[in-house]
Design goal:
D-Maltodextrin-Binding Protein, domain 2, transcription regulation, two-stranded antiparallel ribbon, Arc Repressor Mutant, subunit A, transcription
Length: 303
């Protein structure tokens, strides 16, 4: 059923006048008559019994008028909601984020909620690999992970931050040097996060490319526990620079991994299909709040 014909018919009945309906809709009276005849032809029987300048609704016409008001009301509500969504005054966004990344996004979350208070924002915390799987499967619209993402999942990834990886050990572990070559880790015990963490996946990739078989003394799902083990002399913990700034450096030695450096690259990921207005707004805020600062060369922590 043609919505415009229905609107012309309902307006004519509501005003009880072809002339007034034409003025209200800003069309000619002949257009009103033509559209109502078109609607009658589509339905297959008369809706109005015309008597001079007056008309009487048929039984079918009364049904079409009553239900037509419901249809047009629903169309108005639909249009209003579409406009609200496009204006980001309503909607929902689900973002997947590994626990190691969330501490970097506090200001982003605050800015998003301030700027778009009527968007329902839900964070889903899981490992980087699980976030990647959920985004690829369409269970999450957008997520965060550490590059490189799983190539088999066919995800779109856009880097939003890059930080150096540092080694953390007991006092004297680096002979007062603030850098350590990757090759020097060949025979060094390491305490790492578990293998389902994207950071560990990246570290294993770097070791493999350098021809190093890492000597893993222990693994944990808690980054601060790996630091505790490093402080106790069990091995070196390997962490991105933002975590180094959060540490109490007392009783620890710190050195940035070099030659080559290992970048910890945080990225947005999505499945390459549609991105909602809310998701695009999230990406824009990440760039506004973090982009310029994150693209700077990382500063060295006080040793």
């Amino acid at each position: 059923m043609d919505i415009r014909s229905l609107r012309y018919f309902v307006e004519t009945v509501r005003l009880n006048s072809f002339t007034q309906a034409a003025a209200s809709l800003q069309v000619t009276q002949s257009t009103i008559s033509k559209m109502i005849r078109q609607l009658e032809d589509e339905i297959g029987e008369p809706l109005l019994m015309r008597e001079s300048r007056q008309f009487v609704l048929t039984d079918t016409g009364r049904v079409v008028y009553e239900r037509g008001q419901d249809v047009l009301g629903a169309m108005r509500r639909l249009s209003a909601q579409v406009l609200e969504t496009q204006a980001l005054s309503r909607g929902a966004l689900h973002v997947g984020m590994p626990p190691m990344i969330n501490l970097l996004f506090t200001q982003v979350l605050k800015t998003f909620r301030t700027r778009y208070p009527h968007i329902s924002l839900t964070l889903h915390e899981d490992t980087g690999q699980e976030i990647e799987r959920q985004v690829a499967a369409g269970e999450l619209e957008i997520g965060m992970s550490i590059l490189p993402v799983d190539p088999e999942l066919d995800l779109v990834s856009v880097q939003v931050a890059s930080h150096a990886v540092w080694a953390v050990g007991e006092p004297g572990a680096f002979r007062n040097k603030n850098t350590i070559r990757l090759e020097a880790l060949r025979q060094t015990p390491l305490v790492l996060l578990k293998d389902d963490f994207a950071l560990t996946r990246r570290l294993r990739r770097e070791f493999r490319q350098a021809g190093i078989e890492p000597q893993i003394a222990a693994q944990s799902s808690q980054w601060d526990w790996t630091v505790s083990m490093a402080r106790a002399g069990m091995g070196l913990a390997l962490l991105p620079e933002p975590f180094i700034h959060r540490l109490n450096h007392e009783g620890l030695a710190l050195a940035r991994i070099s030659d080559p450096e290992i970048p910890w690259q945080v990225a947005h990921i999505w499945n390459g299909r549609y991105l909602s207005h809310a998701a695009k707004a999230w990406i824009d805020i990440c760039q506004d709040v973090l982009g310029g600062r994150w693209l700077e060369e990382p500063s060295q922590p006080d040793l």
